[in-house]
Specification:
single chain, mainly alpha, 2 domains, two-stranded antiparallel sheet, 3 helices
Amino acid sequence: MAKFDANSTLKRLQNRYRLVVMNDDTYEEVVTFKLSRLSVYVFLSTIFVVLTGLTVALIVFTPLKLYIPGYGDVNNTKELRELKMRTDSLEQEMRYRDQYFQSLQNVLQGNKTVKLDTTKLKIPKPEKIND
């Protein structure tokens, strides 16, 4: 098994290379760069971090964030919660109303299957006020 040598890896990253851009017709050198693998890696990493930061800033500080699913305006979220509570209470009231009308219809038709409310009420005794 090959032994890992940190010095040779570091030297390979620091070896210098020349990148030459030439005009194909005249063979004239247009641009020359002296690069190493490490400098290319650092340059590409920096570009990646900057582009990621710009993308995040664009989303966070502009109205584009409203297009992200699950991320909405605070006021809209509050209104949605209130509307949901109202809808739930209206559904409960509709069930009570339907039950009441069904019971009323049974009574008017003379059905004997009317359920009586046998719930015991606990009525508190009135307090005595001493003058």
